[in-house]
Design a protein that fits this description.
The complex is a heterodimer of chains A (169) and B (255). Chain A is 75% helix and 0% strand. Chain A has eight helices and no strands. Chain B is mainly α and 255 residues long. The chains are: A mainly alpha (169), B mainly alpha (255). At the A-B interface, helix 2, helix 3, helix 4, helix 5 and helix 6 of A face helix 1, helix 3, helix 4 and helix 11 of B.
Chain lengths: 169, 255
């Protein structure tokens, strides 16, 4: 990230290559649509580019990135709600895995997205950040702008619901 | 270990103990849930990553990271003090002669302490993923409560001559000062990256209102509790509401 801030092209390319899969996974799990997730990923990097001066070397990188990713996702959701109000959908396209993606990863993401779909947005987000992105409770609290206690409570409620869903099967 | 204890361990991201493993072995619900959460990551198309790299590299230039939170907060605090003093200057500092030195010390100390908290909160809101040491809603709500209590305790005159006429003049001056501070706060926040527009703008609005309140605390010679509670504190309320509205509009526009 420091290389990116100092204008190093190699470091920037490496950062994009390393971080993109994690962010893409986050967007796929949130939107359940690969095409939309790809667009969000691009939007995410454009915003990261504009906001790169707000990252301070020495601070944790992931909370900073996920806070921006969260903003991208919220904006996209609001936009889609606005568009949906004015459009009538005539067909619903199936979400095919992109060429190059393995069947297992596509299936895994779809299964996870399906699994989390029934959770309230705040709980789903916490589970994604904790389990999928590997952030700590403290980092998730930073990303969501809430307290560690609130994050713990949301995670506990989400796990309880998920466990219940599996118990019912 | 039962399911509840296992979930608590999961929430705390704790190390998987032998008891936890034994529980997973015996409880299919917990085991299935954990397996599903460990689904493999989706793969991002390499062509898309390459396109993003090209896009970002096309406008790559060195940037200087923002200064530390403390330094930024000190700048915000200094700006708010200077703005309040400058805005009151053309109208005169009549309040300084209207109340005692002890009252002055308490009154301005409280305003200054609140300004310090707002300076830190605004600075933290400029940085995505920064640690929020202050609860925003509590800070905004607490500001009104603290100011109201201080005003009631310090200014025990409850007579209200020319309540509306004099009050409207104060409200106008206070809102004008808040407007100046609001524009300054917006310019300042634009240097960072706002992730929660409504909360941040409401915070900035309350901060701007506090500058308006401070300006009136320097200028207004009417030291009656009803006057200050209604018109001076009204400046903060109007400014906070305006901030929240601007934040909502900004959020809508940004999407």
């Amino acid at each position: 990230m420091t290389g990116y801030q100092s204008g190093d092209a190699g470091a920037t390319s490496e950062l994009i290559g390393r971080v993109s899969p994690h962010m893409f996974h986050f967007f796929v799990a949130e939107t359940r649509n690969r095409a939309v997730a790809e667009d969000l990923l691009q939007d995410f990097w454009l915003r990261i580019h504009r906001a790169r001066h707000t990252f301070r070397p020495g601070e944790p990188l992931l909370p900073w990135m996920y806070a921006i990713a969260r903003r991208v996702r919220v904006d996209a959701y609001r936009k889609s709600v606005r568009v949906d109000r004015h459009e009538i959908r005539t067909e619903s396209l199936p979400d095919y895995p992109a060429p190059g993606g393995t069947e297992t990863s596509a299936q895994g993401s779809a299964k996870l997205a399906e699994l989390l779909a029934d959770l309230p947005a705040a709980q789903r987000e916490v589970i994604l950040l904790l389990k999928e992105s590997g952030l700590t409770l403290e980092e998730v609290a930073r990303v969501t702008g809430s307290s560690v206690g609130a994050v713990k409570q949301r995670a506990h409620r989400a796990y309880k619901k998920l466990r219940k869903a599996f118990g019912a099967e | 270990m039962n399911c509840q204890e296992f979930l608590r361990l999961l929430v705390a991201n704790g190390e998987r103990t032998a008891a936890a493993e034994a529980h997973l072995g015996s409880c299919s619900s917990c085991r299935n849930m954990l397996q599903s959460l460990a689904a493999p990551a989706a793969e991002v198309p390499p062509a898309r990553v390459a396109a993003i790299q090209e896009l970002v590299l096309s406008s790559l230039a060195p940037v200087r990271p923002l200064a530390s939170n403390r330094l930024l907060a000190v700048r915000v605090l200094l700006a708010s003090v200077v703005l309040a003093v400058l805005c009151a200057y053309p109208f005169g500092y009549f309040a300084l002669r209207a109340i005692s030195a002890a009252e002055l010390a308490v009154y301005y100390s409280v305003i200054l302490a609140l300004s310090v908290l707002f300076s830190f909160a605004l600075t933290q809101d400029m940085i995505p993923g920064a640690k929020r040491s202050l609860n925003r809603s509590l800070l905004i709500g607490g500001t009104f409560v603290v100011l109201a209590v201080v005003v009631i305790v310090l200014f025990r005159t409850f007579a209200i001559p020319r309540f509306v006429t004099a009050g409207m003049g104060c409200l106008r001056l206070g809102v004008m000062s808040a407007l100046v501070a609001g524009v300054a706060a917006w310019w300042w926040l634009r240097r960072g990256f706002i992730t929660t527009p409504v909360k941040t703008c409401c915070l900035a609005g309350t901060y701007a209102g506090l500058v308006g309140f401070a300006m009136l605390a320097l200028h207004c010679p009417l030291q009656q509790a009803p006057h200050i509670l209604m018109w001076h504190l009204g400046t903060v309320a109007i400014s906070a509401a305006a901030g929240a509205l601007i934040g909502t509009a900004f959020q809508h526009w940004a999407a």
